[in-house]
What we know:
The protein is mostly helical.
Amino acid sequence: MRRLLSSRDSDWMHKLYQYLRQQGMPVSVTERGEQLELWLHQSSYEAAAKTLIQQFKDNPELAAAPVQAKRTSERGSSSLSFSLLQQSGWLTRIVAVLALLVFGMVQMYPETVLETLRISQYFSALPYDQPWRFITPVLMHFTLLHLIFNIFWWWYLGGRIERSLGISWLLALLLFCGIAANVIQYLFNGPNFGGLSGVVYGLLGFCWIYSFNRPTPLYLPPGLIIFMLLWLVIGYTDMLWINVANEAHLAGLLSGCFAGFVVRWLNPKMRQLH
């Protein structure tokens, strides 16, 4: 936890707390003597929280402004839908919907979908005459568990990147990591594979390196990174009951780490998270 500020003005602190909570910040207020202290539960939100605090100082009436999140919080399942949408952007949603649609098509016409979307029709020739095939395998999932796992992480990681850096950066990462993962997987194992896993590991590597040793909205807890790395390592053993595109995972991770170094050096302006 990080202490953001302290104040003796209980009314002002209450309004600030309400405003930050409306914006989705994980904060709480404690008493220490005559002082009220505002604490942030997750350090990855520090930059965004400080921006919101400064906005509130400039305009304290923000706390009184009705926000959609509060209106929907009392509407049962609609509040969850609104919260999920808040955690994503248009590209995050479009890719997730396309993956769902393609999964449905795979259940009905598996051979047709595979022939249409796999990286190549051959085992020894990349599709330079059909360049879209370099990326289309990321939309194909062959089991429900695989689909759910990948969409969850795509939404969690891709949504944060899109909201923090913008749609252009997420699109660049999708193409760069997706193509790298697909090509390496193809070279090692042939064309019959699919899934967003390589991209997911690319986004993980990107967030990891981009936020390494500094607070940004893309910071990931060390436990999460360790879990995903262990899952990658386990994929190379015989412990799993499913076929795993190990080379795609590793290629995606390495390409994402490289992108993290490059974008960190370029230092684009981070967007304000609402």
